[in-house]
Structures are given as structure tokens and as C-alpha cells.
Amino acid sequence: MPELPEVETVRRGLEPAMAGARILRAQVRRPDLRWPLPARMSERLTGARVLRLGRRSKYILADLDTGETLIVHLGMSGRMLVEGAAPGDFHHQRAAPRAHDHVILDMEGGARITFNDARRFGAMDLAPTAAAETHWLLARLGPEPLGNAFTADYLAARLAGRRTPIKAALLDQRIVAGLGNIYVSEALWQAGIHPRRPAGNVSAARLAVLVPAIRAVLTAAIEAGGSSLRDYRQADGELGYFQHSFAAYDREGQPCRRDGCTGTIRRIVQSGRSSYYCSACQR
Ligand SMILES: [Zn+2]
């Protein structure tokens, strides 16, 4: 499942083809993904110019000159494919849509954007741009982990008194938006915090280490172009997925990479998902 760095990588991959360009043709090839697609979606997109391509948590937001914003979530298996804009590559020469190509946007400039989603846990909706932040998918999201509102003081206030494990608290999208299993494991390793520690029991001094650790692992992954574990494709349309090395995630039984630590990475299951941590240096 794509996490925030992967979604940001997709957004950056879409930006050259979409930002500032008009949607010449929008094909909507089924009535629903995870939820029903918006009424008259094709008509509402066709002819619209994309003013700006943003991101909120794991949602890509395309602000249109019609006053609406296209909200896109990749779900579990959703992919955005960009096919190039070679001269003479007209739309009638395009290959027929593949299985699970659900929404296809032909852009001014010649690029074709295809949303392909085999499992259909993805979502798309259209909302007035002025009200996009209060759309039901976005309204309850906590602050962006890379934004100014996400601070150690904020986190301390939100975690105070909580007995839930810190791992679960950081996965709660209402506390901080966009974090998933991989980067929470990595950030807790970097900060030296045990994933089972009760959230309200992490000291202010350690939260002051954790917040920059979260920012650092996300920033490194975004810079590396995102990472993925399964059949995730880069936004540039190329096959394959990004190779990314982790310090803790998926390293069960291997030596801890922290300088001076002789511990071993262990795996436990929390809320049905694997947590990886060093039993020697995470407390
Ligand atoms: Zn260690």
C-alpha cells in the first residue's frame, strides 16, 4: 500500500503532465471504485484546466479552473500511469485500455494519465475547491507530518494520558496524517522508542527526538523517489518499483544498524500488522 512518500512521488510524477494543462478528454469506465464516482464525472472534467496539483496526506488534489477539486486516493493497489507526449502520438493511436484502467485523462500537451486499480480500494471525488479540506475524506485528518503544525508540543498534547501503544497512535490518521506501517517502524527505530510503549508514556524529550525522526524518514523516502514492496509502478509510467533500504522494517533477525548497538531486529504483530524494532536500543 502506498504511504505518504509514494503518494508524493506520484504527485511529482503527474505534475509536469497535469499542472497548467487542460483535460481534453476524460474517460470514466465504471461507475465506482471503493465508493461511487461523482455524477457526470466525465463532463465535469472534460475541458477543465488543472490549476495546481497538491497533496493532503495520501490524497492527491487537482484544483481545476471550474472551481472544483479532483480528489484522488490510490487505495491498496491503485496506480497512476503517465504515457508520454511524443509528437504524432495522437489519441486514436493509443492502445486499447487494459484491464482495471478505470479513469483515463487525455491532457493538453499529449500526455495520457491512467488510473489503474485492480482491487478498487482507490477513490475519486469532485468537491468545490473552497470546501475540499472539509470533504468527508479529509475533514478529520490530523496535521501533515512535514508541516509546521506537527510539533513535539502538539504530539505531547494529543498523546497525553493514552495507554494505546505509540505505534498505533502514530498510525491514527486523526493524530497525524499519512503515516503507515513502514515509516512508523522506521521513525520509532530512529528515535529509539519501543513500538509497544504506551503513547502517553513517551517523555517530552523523546517526542522532541521522534518528530524530527518522522520528518527525516519521510523526507529521505520522498527524496529517494518513494518505495514500495509490491507491484507498485513509478508515476513516470515505468514498470517496476523503487528499491529502498530500511533500517528496521522487514529486517527480522538481522543486526541493528545503529552505531554501537549489538541488538537484533525483532518482529511483533500489533493490530494485525508487523512491527519491526531492535530489542536492545528501542525502549
Ligand atoms: Zn539497536
Summarize the structure in words:
This is Formamidopyrimidine-DNA glycosylase. Its EC number is 3.2.2.23, 4.2.99.18. Monomer. By secondary structure, this protein is of the alpha+beta class. The protein has two domains: 131 residues, N-terminal domain of MutM-like DNA repair proteins (Alpha-Beta Barrel); 127 residues, Helicase, Ruva Protein, domain 3. Helix content is 23%, strand content 21%. It has six helices and ten strands. The protein has a four-stranded antiparallel sheet with strand order 1-6-7-5. A hairpin with a 3-residue loop joins strand 3 and strand 4. About 4% of the residues have low confidence. Zinc ion binds next to loops.
Hetero ligands: zinc ion
Count all strands and give the number.
10
**Euclidean distance between termini CA atoms:** 28 Å
> What's the number of helices?
6
Structural class: alpha+beta
* Portion in beta strands: 15-25%
Helix proportion range:
10-25%
The biggest beta sheet is recorded as: 4 strands, antiparallel
The average pLDDT value, as a whole number, equals 90
| CATH homologous superfamily label of the largest domain | MutM-like, N-terminal
**Can you tell me the CATH architecture of the largest domain?**
Alpha-Beta Barrel
CATH topology-level name of the largest domain: N-terminal domain of MutM-like DNA repair proteins
The oligomeric state of the chains shown is single chain
User: Unreliable stretches, pLDDT < 50, 5 or more residues?
Assistant: 226-236
SSE ordering: HEHEEEEEEEHHHHEE
Strand order of the largest sheet: 1-6-7-5
